[in-house]
Design goal:
The complex is a heterodimer.
Chain A (H helix, E strand, L loop, with lengths): L18 H15 L7 E5 L7 H4 L3 E4 L5 H11 L4 E7 H7 L1 H10 L4 E6 L34 H7 L4 E6 L3 H12 L5 E6 L11 H7 E3 L11 H9 L4 E8 L5 H5 L16 H8 L4
Parallel strand pairs in A: 1-2, 1-3, 3-4, 4-6, 5-6, 7-8
Antiparallel strand pairs in A: 5-8
Helix pairs in contact in A: 1-7, 4-5
Chain B lengths: L7 E3 L1 E9 L4 H14 L3 E7 L8 E9 L10 E6 L2 H7 L3 E9 L9 H4 L3 E4 L2 H9 L5 H12 L4 H16 L1 H21 L6 E3 L7 E5 H11 L4 E4 L6 H10 L6 E4 L3 H13 L4 E5 L1 H17 L4 E6 L18 H4 L8 E3 L4 H18 L3 E6 H5 L1 E5 L16 H5 L28 E3 L13 H18 L7 E4 L5 E6 L3 H13 L4 E6 L1 E3 L3 H8 L4 E6 L5 H9 L6 E5 L8 H12 L1
Parallel strand pairs in B: 1-8, 2-5, 5-6, 6-7, 10-11, 10-12, 12-13, 13-15, 14-15, 19-20, 19-22, 22-23
Antiparallel strand pairs in B: 2-4, 3-4, 9-16, 14-21, 18-20
Helix pairs in contact in B: 1-5, 4-5, 4-7, 5-7, 6-7, 8-9, 8-13, 10-11, 17-20
The chains are: A alpha/beta, B alpha/beta.
Chain lengths: 286, 588
């Protein structure tokens, strides 16, 4: 069995108290609990404070462009479906510049674990509002208060046909790690939005603020994550904020639909030039 | 149904088929092209169609010759028009002695000077189709029947093609109806026209020839080269590459994805190529603009990805169904930062195939993006070509390590400061190969590093790859008389018109040489310098407004002589005479 140090490459240098520490810890715990081989894992990150995760988490890593985690991760998964592909984005990466890819990855149900670390602010660029920032929030980009209504990623994923929709809290590492484990075993696109306070630029949505609002879906014995309408109702609750697995369903993953043989790598197998077959195809141009 | 009449023997003929989008103009032209090819003729098709589905003027020229041709020529011998407007629109391109068939009234109203020297026939294609076959759609096969009489085509060949097209898909009944339509057209033409209006096309052996578009040749090249992943967003005139691969890739253990946009297409291609699949995307100008950021990522992360760019008229949405060469600098200078890239520009259908095969090897050998730059005229129009040789293809994956090689290493460095810049490569999932791939500047292990010295050395390492590639690139080709003092430079599909213009000039005693630039980046400086040496006059021929190729050459070659730019930006390809007349005038 592995332990979480097997995935620890380096101590992070995020701001002291950053929610990303909780996400990092939960991720390592889940990987250890699932006994994952770091060499069979690819972590694709976007641009933002979360993007440093590759420097700390031991696995194959790809740190690409702002907002393009999901297309890159989709390409990796299709090229080698045997890999566990984890995408990590911030709220800006996922819901602002990368929004288009988000709903399409959800509808395709491509086999990626997608973690959106939501701190409701642009941290790396020094504190502008993000698409999840609340109306009225004062920041360097909104000195008179934000004039825009926030959007809700899990709701979008639900509407787009997402098959695994969960929300966790970086202040509850054990619970978040449990969600990661479930996501790693899900066939298809698994969204985990991790509420994650930014201690430097967001003085409103603090650990305390989140703790007052959140409750565990799992504590409600009447809640079953198979009912879309029920999931929607919980996501609509503006006074309280449930965390846990909102919704899960089984649909064939994209890689199984689009690849001729999901067990045969398109990266290395069957590349030899099949002259007779190619010549037969050329006959169509006679 | 074999004709015994004597027509005029000819070696070169152009047929223009014109009507409205939805009339089946392009279909008729492509079938005619195929028939002529099977009779042993060289064929070039030039389609001129609008970017809508129905209603607007559409035409296609089918040119055939006993000699190797690459362009649509200068004029038209026969016009087959599905309506009178098509006659009005195109009558001026018809040669003296030309024949016009028109399905409709109103040609009589045309001014006499336009009609002079041409024969006009009312040919009621739609009516014949409805009365004899019950459906208007057979008008196209009736038209082909008429043309087969006029050109003395081998109706046996046409019947073979009809069977190939319809037997499997639609059944014997449809084959029979089309055959009847064909014969009807043939008979009607025989009743209508005199021998002097006919031609007798020599039949030669059709040995090693195929007929296809550049897009199809690129797709077939990709398939043969081991492309196994393709991601793209629909766009004219590149979609044919994808449509073709969508059919065949799944049978070759490959996958095709239609992405949500070109941002996703290029990033997905980068992801798949990073994980090891030989990967391609295709696009045109607007899509390329969206791909630029991820193109830069591929350069920084040293990911081997191939892009086929089929140029259309710009800027903005431009004219999506017409040809241009106005994106020449897009992949060379269009993205942010300095990074190595290779841009190839095929000038013939054969080159579309060969360069695509080569592109995949270059991409993996030098671990950088490789772009195939072509144009709508090459990408979408059918041309006869010599058949492709698959047995000569060798797949070279460069410094991609095997699992055993990787296990033998103590300290694998994905971005090692290699002498030639080409570092060893491992794929995610391999043992002992853990590494990081970064869009940020990084060290030899791939991890983010902002040390100025590391930055300088990593930049040098990446750029050194192009020096290593220099000897491996596709050289330029000189056409015509290498000792001529009059030089012409061009790239891509303008080759056809340029080579024919050279022949026209040679007949008038003007000797020329033509440098076909087949690699645009890294720019072939030495070859161009050698070519320009001894030139008294230099013309640069290109399908754009501002002389983009001319500027590219001047920016790379020191001490260029003064260039005369021959540009065309009407959205149509060059005719040979566009070039030869300009050169002749300049020489006076």
């Amino acid at each position: 069995m592995k332990n979480k140090d097997d995935y620890h490459l380096e101590d992070p240098s995020w701001c002291r108290g950053c929610g990303l520490f909780g996400v990092f810890d939960a991720f390592k715990r889940a990987a250890a609990a699932q006994d994952l081989d770091p060499e069979r894992m690819v972590v694709v990150t976007g641009i933002g404070c979360h993007g440093r995760l590759n420097n700390y988490f031991r696995a194959y890593g790809f740190h690409g462009l702002h907002g393009r985690v999901l297309p890159v991760a989709t390409g990796v998964k299709l090229s080698n479906p045997g890999l566990l592909v984890v995408g990590v984005s911030g709220d800006g990466d996922a819901y602002s510049i990368g929004q288009g890819h988000f709903i399409h990855a959800a509808r395709r149900n491509v086999g990626i674990v997608y973690v959106v670390v939501d701190n409701r602010i642009f941290g790396l660029t020094q504190g502008q509002v993000s698409p999840t920032t609340e109306m009225g929030f004062v920041s360097i980009s909104s000195p008179y208060g934000s004039k825009e209504f926030p959007i809700d990623g899990p709701k979008l994923a639900l509407a787009a046909g997402g098959t695994f929709i969960a929300r966790g809290f970086s202040g509850n590492v054990a619970h978040l790690a449990g969600l990661f484990e479930k996501a790693m075993n899900h066939r298809g696109f698994a969204l985990i939005e991790a509420l994650s306070p930014c201690v430097t630029h967001n003085k409103i949505n603090t650990y305390e603020w989140f703790r007052k609002k959140i409750y565990l879906l799992e504590d409600d014995p009447g809640y079953h994550p198979g009912d879309k309408m029920e999931a929607w109702t919980r996501l609509q609750d503006s006074r309280r904020m449930p965390i846990g697995l909102f919704y899960q369903e089984q649909k064939p993953p994209f890689e199984e639909l689009v690849l001729p043989d999901v067990h045969k790598s398109i990266a290395r197998e069957g590349l030899e030039v099949d002259v007779p077959r190619l010549e037969k195809i050329m006959e169509k141009f006679r | 149904m074999v004709s015994l009449r004597k027509g005029q023997p000819i070696t070169d003929i152009s047929v223009l088929i014109a009507g409205k989008a939805g009339d089946g103009v392009l279909f008729t032209g492509n079938v005619l092209a195929k028939i002529l090819k099977r009779q042993g003729w060289e064929v070039v098709v030039c389609r001129d169609f609008p970017s809508n589905i129905r209603g607007e003027a559409t035409s296609t020229i089918v040119r055939a010759s006993l000699d190797r041709i690459y362009s649509w020529g200068d004029c038209v011998d026969i016009l087959l028009a599905f309506d009178c407007q098509a006659v009005f629109k195109n009558v001026q391109t018809i040669v003296r002695g030309g024949v016009v068939f028109c399905d409709g009234e109103g040609v009589g109203a045309m001014p006499d000077h336009l009609k002079k020297g041409k024969t006009f026939h009312r040919f009621l294609l739609r009516q014949l189709a409805k009365e004899n076959l019950g459906q208007e759609v057979y008008k196209n096969m009736i038209a082909l029947g008429a043309l087969s009489y006029v050109l003395d085509l081998d109706t046996q060949i046409i019947q073979e093609i009809i069977s190939e097209m319809f037997l499997q898909r639609k059944g014997q009944e449809i084959v029979d109806k089309n055959t009847r339509a064909l014969m009807l057209g043939w008979e009607k033409a025989r009743e209508m026209i005199v021998d002097s209006e006919c031609h007798a096309l020599t039949r030669t052996e059709d040995q090693d020839r195929i007929i296809l578009s550049g897009d199809e040749a690129i797709a077939l090249g990709a398939l043969a080269a081991g492309c196994r992943f393709f991601a793209a967003y629909p766009i004219c005139p590149a979609s044919e590459i994808w449509q073709w691969l969508a059919v065949y890739l799944p049978h070759f253990n490959g996958a095709v994805v239609q992405t949500e946009d070109e941002l996703a297409a290029m990033n997905m291609a980068v992801g798949a190529a990073y994980a090891g699949a030989r990967t391609m995307t295709s696009t045109s100008g607007p899509g390329a603009s969206l791909m630029m950021e991820a193109f830069s990522l591929a350069g920084m992360a040293e990911v081997p990805v191939v892009v086929a760019h089929v140029q259309r008229v710009g800027p903005a949405t431009g004219t999506p169904t017409k040809t241009e060469q106005s994106d020449i600098g897009q992949w060379i200078f269009g993205s942010h930062g300095d990074f190595p890239k290779i841009v190839l520009a095929p000038g013939t259908v054969e080159e579309c195939f060969e360069f695509t095969v080569k592109a995949f090897n270059l991409a993996e050998r030098y671990q950088c993006p490789v772009i195939l730059m072509t144009e709508l005229d090459m990408g979408q129009n059918l041309r006869s070509a010599r058949e492709f040789h698959f047995d000569k293809i060798a797949i070279d994956r460069g410094r991609l390590l095997s699992q055993d090689e990787l296990l033998g290493l103590d300290n694998f460095k994905r971005y090692e400061f290699a002498a030639n810049g080409i570092s060893p490569r491992a794929l995610p999932g391999m043992k002992n190969g853990l590494h990081m791939v970064e869009g940020n500047e990084h060290n030899e292990k791939g991890y983010r590093d902002e040390d100025p010295e590391i930055r300088r050395r990593m930049m040098d390492k990446r750029m050194r790859k192009l020096q290593a590639a220099a000897k491996d690139l596709i050289g330029s080709q000189v056409w015509g008389d290498p000792r001529a003092r009059l030089g012409i430079l061009g790239t891509g599909s303008t080759l056809g018109a340029i080579v024919e213009a050279q022949a026209q000039l040679a007949k008038k005693g003007i000797r020329t040489k033509f440098l076909q630039l087949r690699t645009l980046w890294p720019f072939p400086v030495k070859e161009t310098e050698a070519f320009l040496r001894g030139c008294r006059q230099v013309f640069v021929v290109e399908n754009n407004f501002s002389g983009q190729l001319s500027r590219l050459i001047k920016s790379q070659v020191e001490g260029c002589p003064r260039f005369k730019n021959i540009v065309k930006y009407s959205s149509l390809p060059f005719k040979p005479m566009d070039i030869s007349q300009r050169i002749q005038r300049a020489g006076r």
